[in-house]
């Protein structure tokens, strides 16, 4: 499996620089720092505007704010952290980088111990994601996600697992030279997987349970409610993430109002 054969979503988080000897993947801390740097642009921009428009003591205060915020934002943006898969040393480690300078390696472990798991997307059961160590990448279709998994298997000789056919159990996969038989097998087993019912059993008068009746009706497409197959347009967790910057914006607004009233 070559890098050029991967889907666009998979290529978005896989940087081809250094392949096949080494692959550097951005960690969660890396994205958190980038997010904080973007949030810091808001008070920095406001302080710059105030510095230009005001004069006297207020201008001096905002000049001090710019001098304080600018290096913080630049440091947060320039400081990088990657999970590194290194083929020559057969090791996995985390390494930080700042303006081209690489810090000491941390959390060293054998490359073979890296977890590579194919599973359903956490928010959409019709999509799939790939878990690599402690990083999770939602890629999309089963074909695209399996191709990304095979890329890691063939490039770094990682043991692959899947959590689709026997969910929630995890099953090891054999390393294959081609991913087409694997995709067909996973797709077929996923379609034939029985639906798990988590309802209380209520005995009826004729000896049958309401659970059995409900399970039989749910297996029949004519008795299944129409909303069961419709994916929500907005997931609650996604909507909640949109409000993450709100407390920072409110605190900054109150601070600016208080300073302006002095």
Strand content: 15-25%
> How many H/I helices?
8
User: What is the number of strand segments?
Assistant: 10
Number of domain modules: 1
Mean pLDDT: 75
State the low-pLDDT regions, or none: 194-233
Q: Key features?
A:
262 residues, alpha+beta, 8 helices, 44% helix, elongated
Secondary structure layout:
Elements: H1 8-13, E1 22-26, H2 28-53, H3 56-78, E2 79-86, E3 91-98, E4 101-102, E5 106-110, E6 116-120, E7 128-132, E8 135-140, H4 142-156, E9 160-162, E10 171-172, H5 180-191, H6 210-219, H7 236-242, H8 246-260
Parallel strand pairs: 6-9
Antiparallel strand pairs: 1-2, 2-3, 3-4, 3-5, 6-7, 7-8, 9-10
Helix pairs in contact: 2-3
Overview of this structure, please?
With 262 residues, the chain is α+β, with helices and mostly antiparallel strands. The protein has one domain (3-193, 238-260). Helix content is 44%, strand content 19%. The chain has helices at 8-13, 28-53, 56-78, 142-156, 180-191, 210-219, 236-242, 246-260, and strands spanning 22-26, 79-86, 91-98, 101-102, 106-110, 116-120, 128-132, 135-140, 160-162, 171-172. The strands form 2 sheets. Strands 1, 2, 3, 4 and 5 form a 5-stranded antiparallel sheet that branches. Strands 8-7-6-9-10 form a 5-stranded mixed sheet. β7 (128-132) and β8 (135-140) form a beta hairpin. α2 packs antiparallel against α3 (56-78).
């Amino acid at each position: 499996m070559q890098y050029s054969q991967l889907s666009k979503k998979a290529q978005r988080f896989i940087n081809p620089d250094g392949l096949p000897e080494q692959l550097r993947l951005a960690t969660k801390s890396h994205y958190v720092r980038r997010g904080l740097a973007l949030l810091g642009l808001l008070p920095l921009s406001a302080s710059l505007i105030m510095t230009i428009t005001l004069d006297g003591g207020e201008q001096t205060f905002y000049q001090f704010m710019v001098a304080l915020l600018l290096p913080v934002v630049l440091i947060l943006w320039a400081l990088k952290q990657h999970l590194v898969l290194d083929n020559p040393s057969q090791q996995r480690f985390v390494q930080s980088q700042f303006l081209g300078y690489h810090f000491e390696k941390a959390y060293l472990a054998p490359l073979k111990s890296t977890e590579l798991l194919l599973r359903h997307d956490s928010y959409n059961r019709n999509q799939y994601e790939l878990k690599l160590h402690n990083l999770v990448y939602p890629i999309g279709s089963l074909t695209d996600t399996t191709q990304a998994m095979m890329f890691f298997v063939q490039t770094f000789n990682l043991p692959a697992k899947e959590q689709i056919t026997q969910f929630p159990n995890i099953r090891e996969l054999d390393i294959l030279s081609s991913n087409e038989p694997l995709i067909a097998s996973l797709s077929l087993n996923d379609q034939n997987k029985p639906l798990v019912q988590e309802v209380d059993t209520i005995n009826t008068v004729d000896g049958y349970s309401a659970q059995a009746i409900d399970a039989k009706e749910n297996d029949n497409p004519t008795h299944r409610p129409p909303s069961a197959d419709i994916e929500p347009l907005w997931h609650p967790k996604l909507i909640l993430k949109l409000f993450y910057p709100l407390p920072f914006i409110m605190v900054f607004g109150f601070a600016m109002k208080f300073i302006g009233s002095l």
